[in-house]
């Protein structure tokens, strides 16, 4: 195994040789040894936009997870190659909604609600997929009058959906869906959970007829670990602590926190705070540790005392980054992510609708 310094050098050498032919994008959850080499670091929304910002680059090396690389492929130019340094970097939440189960759910909802527009000419259901989903699901939304959202624009996107539909089917993350809809004043009784293994998702037809937001039964295993007990402990240990969590956390945790927001929201809140602030953060540990190192003027710690990395984000080892960059130097595109043509146009439609919504 190559040493860290040697890998660092190989990456720097390849980057220098490639120049503007390649752009490296990195999500906030990437480890420092990778983030250091990124041309853009951001949340999933910012990285989707960044994929469009360098049309002259031949390749976009995406240091993040599979669904983010797919999105970059959909939004970048037709001749640009998107590369995911390790193809095993998926997202367990994205895997919780597969296209067949969503199609099956859609069929059941169509039988129940009908196909024709209801009062006010609104569609019976608008499908909304979280960015953390396969391109096939984005295509499903594009084909059925739906849209994509991220954790930074979920409320605006839900408003967009309610202008066009009576209800929303939100997948895969039940927590982002519930937290966002609740903040918009939608009562919990109007948010049934859809379990894809049960007929009608495990609900009675009456319950579904009263639904405003149907929540798919998916979740993030990293953010599910945060608890109200940890917040209570942080407040007891650090009076005056500001608790900020990601909206993928369960509702009681978001309710007990002072604020919730996307990874970009979290980093901006910390950067804008007066020196000497104390923050307890409920999100991935690589990001929290980096923020703590970047802001010695504050006290910043992770709510979960047990290290909780996103194991799939962590699969982007600098060794893979060096390997794909060196491939590009010799004209070989390794680990290309290309969304099949059959899904691309409709998936792009759903993404374009999101990009047109004001955050
Ligand atoms: P952000 O949109 O906040 O970057 O979150 C992406 C993600 O995967 C969080 O788990
Ligand atoms: Fe997926 Fe959770 Fe990792 Fe984000 S933190 S990429 S939602 S598993």
TrEMBL record:
Cofactor note: Binds 1 [4Fe-4S] cluster per subunit.
Record keyword Cytoplasm present: yes
The keyword Iron is annotated on this UniProt entry: yes
Top EC class, one word: transferase
UniProt keyword annotations, A-Z: 4Fe-4S, Cytoplasm, Iron, Iron-sulfur, Metal-binding, Pyridine nucleotide biosynthesis, Transferase
Main location: cytoplasm
Binding site for iminosuccinate: 27, 44, 130-132, 151, 246-248, 263
Pathway: Cofactor biosynthesis; NAD(+) biosynthesis; quinolinate from iminoaspartate: step 1/1
Annotated compartments: Cytoplasm
Reaction(s) catalysed by this chain's protein: iminosuccinate + dihydroxyacetone phosphate = quinolinate + phosphate + 2 H2O + H(+)
Family per similarity comment: Belongs to the quinolinate synthase family. Type 3 subfamily.
Role this protein plays: Catalyzes the condensation of iminoaspartate with dihydroxyacetone phosphate to form quinolinate.
Name under which the protein is recorded: Quinolinate synthase
Organism: Arthrobacter koreensis
Taxonomic lineage from the root: Bacteria, Bacillati, Actinomycetota, Actinomycetes, Micrococcales
Gene assigned in the entry: nadA
